[in-house]
Every structure is written in C-alpha cells, then in structure tokens.
Fold this sequence. Notes:
35 helices, magnesium, Pyruvate, phosphate dikinase, EC 2.7.9.1, transferase, nucleotide-binding
Amino acid sequence: MSENKDPLVAESSDSDVEGVKFVYDFTEGNRDLKDLLGGKGANLAEMTNLGLPVPPGFTITTEACKTYLDSGDEPAALRDEVSAHLEALEATMGKKLGQADNPLLVSVRSGAKFSMPGMMDTVLNIGLSDKSVLGLSKQAGDDRFAWDSYRRLIQMFGKTVLGVDGELFEEALEAAKEAKKVTVDTDLEAADLKKLVTKFKKIVKTEAGRDFPQDPREQMDLAIHAVFDSWNTDRAKLYRRQERIPHDLGTAVNVCSMVFGNLGPDSGTGVAFTRDPASGHQGVYGDYLQNAQGEDVVAGIRNTVPLAELESIDKKSYDQLMQIMETLETHYKDLCDIEFTIERGQLWMLQTRVGKRTAGAAFRIATQLVDQGLIDEAEALQRVTGAQLAQLMFPRFDDQAKVEQIGRGIAASPGAAVGKAVFDSYTAIKWSRSGEKVILIRRETNPDDLDGMIAAEGILTSRGGKTSHAAVVARGMGKTCVCGAEELEVDTKRRRMTAPGGVVIEEGDVVSIDGSTGKVYLGEVPVVPSPVVEYFEGRMHAGADDADELVAAVHRIMAYADRVRRLRVRANADNAEDALRARRFGAQGIGLCRTEHMFLGDRRELVERLILADTEAEREDSLKELLPLQKRDFVELFEAMDGLPVTVRLLDPPLHEFLPDVTELSVRVALAESRGDANENDLRLLQAVHRLHEQNPMLGLRGVRLGLVIPGLFTMQVRAIAEAAAERKNAKGDPRAEIMIPLVGTVQELEIVREEADQVIAEVQAATGTELKLAIGTMIELPRAALTAGQIAEAAQFFSFGTNDLTQTVWGFSRDDVEASFFTAYLEKGIFGVSPFETIDKDGVGSLVKSAVKAGRATRPDLKLGVCGEHGGDPESVHFFHEVGLDYVSCSPFRIPVARLEAGRAASSAKGSDHR
Length: 916
C-alpha cells in the first residue's frame, strides 16, 4: 500500500458507499484502527507490521457488522471484497479453501474494539469436508489429526452457526471415550474419530434440519454471519451492560489461515503474559498444552503445564517466544496478553492485547515501566484507576476460606466485617464496650442508630440502597455495609434474622458481611488487612517485601497525582475523629459537616424538648442548653482541621427523625394507658410525631425551611460556629469556618437567613473582640436552585452541589427505596449503565450543575464551587467535576485517596489532550 494512500479509503468504489472498504488484509491495518478493525484485528495487523510470525489473513470491519445488523443483510459489496481477499490469501498460501487434495483451512473469529472474552463466536477449521479431510490427512501425513480437526469443525459449527445444543456433541464424545475406555480425547484413534464425525453429522441433520455444509465458501459465509449475530446475543448484551461498553460498536470478523497445534507432541497451543497479571512481577507466566487447539486450553479439557516447561519441550520455540514477548511489551509499553500456537516446531502468533491485571499489579507495572524508561509519570497515572485503588484499600475475606453464604444484598460500603449479630444500637454499644465485635442488623437505619453504627464492625440492612442512610453514613466512617438484602427477613423484636432455607440467625450468632460483593455469610470468615490503608494512615512505609513494594508504587503515583491535580479534595466529616482521619488521608478541608449527627446521643432529650416547646420561653431554654454543646463540637472540629476550610451545614433533616418511631411509641403509650400509668411526656411526644408526620418528608419541612419556621434554631447554630471560631482564633489557631444553608430554592430564603446570620456574627465579634471571616453559602440540591443560580449567587459566597438530593429531585426517585425496588431491572434492561446515585447523570443532573456553575460565576466571578454529594468520591464523576470547573470535591474520608488520584488523572488527561 502506498504511503500516500489513506488506509480507510479503498482503491475502487465497489462498496455500498463510494470510497469505503469493508475488508482489510492484515498487512494494511495497525493498532490505532481498533474502532474499524476491532482489537484483535488491529493487533494482528500490528504484529504483522512488526514482522512477527502471524498466519496470513484479513479482517472484515465493524462497519460491515453494523450494516448487517441494521439491515438484516450484509453490505452488497462485502461478498466481492471477501472473495478478492480470499483469492489473495490462497495465492499467498499456495492452496485453495477446502480443495480436495491440498485444502486451505481458515478460522473465523470475532474481535470487537473492547475485549469481550467468551461472549462472541469463533469457528475453527473451516474448509474441511468429506473430501478435503482426506486431502488434509495426506498433506499432514496424519490421519488422526485430520479427522480430529473435522469433528472439531462440525462440533463448533453445529453449535455456533446452526444452533445445535452443544451438550449433544459432548455426550457423543463422552460415549466414544467410554466405548474406547479412555478418559481424554487425545487417546481416541483415527477410526474412532471418523465414527464420531458420522455421529456428529447425524446430530446436525436431526437438530438443524439440514446436512452439514460441504461447500467451504458456504461454511465461511455462514460463520461470518454467525459472528455478526453473536454481537446481539443475550450474554454479549449483558456483558456490555456490566462493562459499560456501548451497544452500537459492532464486532469485526477475522479470517485467518489455520495453523495447527493438534499435529502431535511437537505441536501445541498456549497463552502467555509478559508479566504476572496477578502481581505485576516480571517472569515467565502462562500455560501451554501439547497436541491441542486453542479452545482446549480455554475449555480445560486437559491440564496445561506452566509456560516455563516449554523450554524443555521445545527450546527453539521457547526462546523465540521470549524474544517476541519482549518485543511486544517494549512496543506496546505495557503488559501484553498473548495467544500462540506451535505447529511442528514453528511458532505462530494468534493474538496479543494489553492484558487485564489485578489492582496491585496495575500500580506495580505502572511504576516499573517508568523505571524502565518506557513511559513517563503522566502515562503511569493514566494506567491506574480510582476503582483499583479502592480495591487495594479495603480489607478482604480470605479467598481460601470455607464459607456458608446465606444471602446477598447491595454492596454499599466496601470491606470485610465479622461480628456477632445484634439488632439495636443499645446492644451494639453495650457489647462493643465489653470487647465484643458486632454486626448491626436492621431493616433500615436512621440517625438514631448512629452510635450503634459507630460501635459496630459493619452494618447489614434488609432495605435501602447505596445512598440510603446506612450506606452514606457507613461510607463516611469507612464502615463495611451491605444494604437491601431483601431475602433476609429481619425481626428486630424477636432479635433474629431468617435466611432462605430456614436458616435462623439469633442475636449473638456470628455473621460475616462483604461490602465489596454484598454477600452475607454465616460464621466467621477470616479477613486479610490492607497495607495500603496502613500506609495512608502513616502506619506503614515502603520497604523490601511484596506489600511494601505495592505501597511504594501507590506512594509514587499518588505523589504525582497530587502535584498535577487542580481539584482540591475535602472530606465529609461530622466530628474531630473523622476529621483527623480525613486529614491523614490527605483531605484539604471539610466540605460537609452534617450537624444533625451532633443532635443525637445524650442530646436527644434536649432536641425532644425543643420540638415539644409550646412557648417561646421553652424553646429559647432548649436552644440555650444546646448552644454550648454545639460550640464544643465546633471547637474540636476547628482544632482538628486548623488552617483548613470547614464547611458546616446547618440542620437539614425533618424534625420527626429526632423523635421515637411512631409504632414503638404508640405501643408504649397504649400499654401505659392500659396499666393506668400513662406518661405525660410520651403522650406529648406521640402528638408531636403525628403533628410532624409528612407523606414525603424529604420534600417537606427540612433544610432552610426549618430555620425559617423555628425561630432561633439556625441562629443558635451560627452563634455556636462563630463563638467556636473566635475561641480557636484567640487560642492562636487558624479556624476557617464556612456556613452552608441547605435546601435553598429561592434567593429570598437565603437572604433572610444570611441577614440573621450576619447579625449574630457581628454580635460575637463585638463580644469577643475577634475579627471573624465566616463565608456564607448554600447547597445547590434542588432543580430550581440550579436554574436560578445566577440570582442565588447574589447572596451566596459559595455553592456546594448536593448531588444526592439533586439526583433524587431531578429523577423523581426516592433514593432510600428505588435501588432495592427496581434499579436492578433498569440496569439489566440497559436503561441505566450505572446507578445515577453512584455516578453522576451527566445528561440530566450534570447539565444542571454545568448551567449553575456558568450562571453563578457570571454573577459572582470569585464564587467558590464544590460538590459534597456521594459523587464527590466517584472516579468517573470526579472527571466531570474537573471538566465543569469546580474548585473541590468532598467525599467520605476513606474515598479521599481515590478522589485525589482521579483528580490527578483528570488534570493529566486534559493536559495530554491539549498537547495532542
């Protein structure tokens, strides 16, 4: 091909669209054409260009597949293009497809842009027939090999192309081995295989209603169509949904001249990796199987031997393979996954691709390649992901342990937790203080369970999803959590949980929960700690052993990410302990302190008195008692985060969440009345619960509405913040408090609250003689707030996007209910690629964020912008927030390293795009 010709333009116009070609010889493509040639075809072309031993062949493009799938028929020009390339292949090989005396055989293999292992179809040995099998036997000088190849073709073709139940062929093969009294198919002789071919053809005739095709071109054409069709099989679609691969890419088809690993002991097939995909260590890794074709390795029909043993089996091929592996890794500058076949001592390369690897291997390999000078630090940063880092941070159950799984829910907060089952917070606290490890099991949690959640090793609920109370709080604490395990029946009154099959877990029984998979086990499953977390907490340093080597790799990549990222990373933290942990993990401040968590525990009675207050005097008394407690909270928080910003959100949830459960309270009152000793306080509480009851409390009296309806509530909190900041400043500290007003929908709400807050701050400044610079801003968590952001920015010094509630209100979803009720169906049907509560919905919620950023900064150019919803720690969402120009993201402490890494990747990727 001339250097001046575009490889995407054909020399003739014999295609459906003038200038477009649908078939490329392996000599024409390269690895950059994966969109057109698929990953396999592009890499076969690349290896051909490198002069490596690749069997000649050609690739039918993904465009041909898309045309076929859209119209139900192949492009009109495709058959002629295939014929032309087939003739060229026959000329190269000196034989014709399926000819009787000297047959050319080919494989027809799928190859999409993104690897979809085992999801689509492949057919080997195409071109064999009742006549050509005799020619193959003569050509190879091996009767057994020829009939073995023929039975393989009929078996694969029957199952893949004609839709015959594969079990029928397997049963016939097993019957042949039993009749011969052998256990492996390699012990079947030519006569046995010839009989098996006859049996297989009868199966095809009976099940498919037609004879096995004897025309080799018909075999090839039908196989090509079958590969096209396999793009839309149920398993392929499900895999793409899980891996978030677009459905409109289509697959390429690779037609490759056959080389045979089943020609005897001097032949074989194998898979090799240029480095260990599990650890990243350099060495000889892979498997080899003598006298076999590729599917034998995958199917596990016979046990393979370690690749290193190939050196003693075939030293020449082994040495050549090692050289090729080094060439490929140097060329691709990454771990390569290789498929190869040896045909009578001749090595052939059938595929290469950048290999999949474990999270630990990804970090090790990235830094190794930097040290070898193959890539720079910027590229190393792009070779790892936040998801991989998260995998390295959470403790895991021992894979070798024997387990008894009793249920499965939503993997809400990663980790591995073991403890005794308890069914209320009081017991969790009591047992924990006695040295017991417990798992708090509830139907769902609420703010009243916070102390129990803190005391527990992990939380298990039968209701709720990834953004339910249990999930959000657990992630904030780095606590393992499984939510929405609906198959588990939780009975808190009888203090027991019933699993499918009648397994009953009583209080005190040991259970284990895996927050990374959602699996629940009976009994204790051993856990393996994470050295990466120990590193982030300052308890481990890089050294010589394997764990330390991993930590060193993580350290190097994190250091580079921190140098290049633009986004700052803050923490969602509600107390000094969480703040200190977040700081150790690299937090640059607190982006969300939820003050409602400070109103529980020993302050519950004060809050109840506030809610029950009938007079202004009673309400003021309650607020006066709460003030010093709130102030103490903030003093501790400002001390822990000294010198860094702390954004305090004023009270947000509905008041009824601070009152007892209506059912439990009603029963208590009824029982007391039946005994004649009714408690006046309980009666008032019950009245208050009924009074405050709302059909949809998340859209009711909460957030800024509370501050406007209950006089003194927000001003008490503002005063506590201001006095704490003044005290800290007078102690030579550097408090940087920011006050955030939640659930604002109109600028007027913010103006009223801000005016009151400014007055309180001025009073504190006058009383303490301390100058305070307290920024006042708001959460953008309602669609109206996003749409009127330009107006709201007139009264706000900063915006923090509350993307949990914004997602809820944009979609009309109740996040505590929908994940467990219908999200699974939505994911399976492809409506969602991923939950919008997990990764931000760029088209809907994201467009509101983008417009609010633009409008807010148009009004106030120095407007500080952040996000404090759960999306702040989601890898993909972090990239979006970088692109729209936010200043920081805020997330739970244990997700801070992930956010730091992804913020660095976002900045590095954007810089690389600019350069390109």
